[in-house]
Amino acid sequence: MAHDAPGAVSGGGHTPELVIFDCDGVLVDSERISNEVLASMLSDEGLSKTLEEARRDYQGLLLGDIATAAEAELGRPLPVGWLEAYEHARAEAFRRELRAVPGAEEAVTRVSAAGVDVCVASQGKLEKTRLSLQLTGLRELFSDRALFSAHSVARGKPHPDLFLHAAITMGVDPSVCVVVEDTPSGVVAAVAAGMRVFGYAADSDEDALRQAGAEILDAMEELPGRFGLY
Predict the structure, then answer these.
(1) Mean pLDDT, to the nearest integer, of 155-179?
(2) What is the C-alpha separation between 116 and 10, in angstroms, rounded?
(3) Are 118 and 22 in contact (CB under 8 A)?
(4) Tell me, what DSSP letter sits at residue 76?
(5) 228: exposed, middle or buried (C-beta count within 10 Å: 0-12, 13-18, 19+)?
(6) Beta strands in 47-190 (DSSP E)
(7) pTM, entire model
């Protein structure tokens, strides 16, 4: 695929060679579910959290970092096995409630149909991403080699490691990659990787996404059109 110049995609409307989708909050509507379970289980440990507080304090963090932050607030360790219990409770809640983000399937399908590679790069473990995509009917849109986890790199978001790893593995230069994110930390990671980034703002802080360096995307259906794919 020809481009005017290396990196031109970062500031213009050129069609990218790879679109990297975050999973939670971009492809699947999981953030409310995850944080409701988290708030409830932390409250059971004596750390009272509302859904809004859990999202404010922990959204976009690796699970280990969430546990570390919660333990600092509690002033003591969480019980042995607490993280595993949380992951189990979250998976059960996903099976009951998880849905695809409106327009996500259409956006991925249209981008792929135009010959642009797609992949998923998430802070979560690969098994969580696979479960989320399977439950929402999106799994078949991504090949096995196109799923990436921050647990496979040295540093998660807001560092660029995950997005650079995805680009290298998919055989695409970072300058012709586009990222779709819903958290400021993910936007910061994409900018640090030298990639154009859209901040999906339907359920996120639009100002924070913009300040982190994102172009704002109000609906997933809009994404292909931003590359001239109609």
Answers:
(1) 97
(2) 16
(3) no
(4) S
(5) exposed
(6) 117-122, 147-149, 177-181
(7) 0.89
pLDDT of residue 13: 57
Place of tokens 């797609």: 118
Domains of the chain (ranges, CATH numbers): 8-29+99-226 (3.40.50.1000), 31-97 (1.10.150)
pLDDT tens digits, residue range 68-84? 999 999 999 999 999 99
Q: What is the DSSP letter of 22?
A: P
Residue in this structure with the two tokens 């936007």, named with its chain if needed: 187
What sign does the CA torsion over 179, 184, 185, 189 have?
A: positive
Structure tokens at 160: 């660029």
Q: How high is the pLDDT of residue 60? A: 80
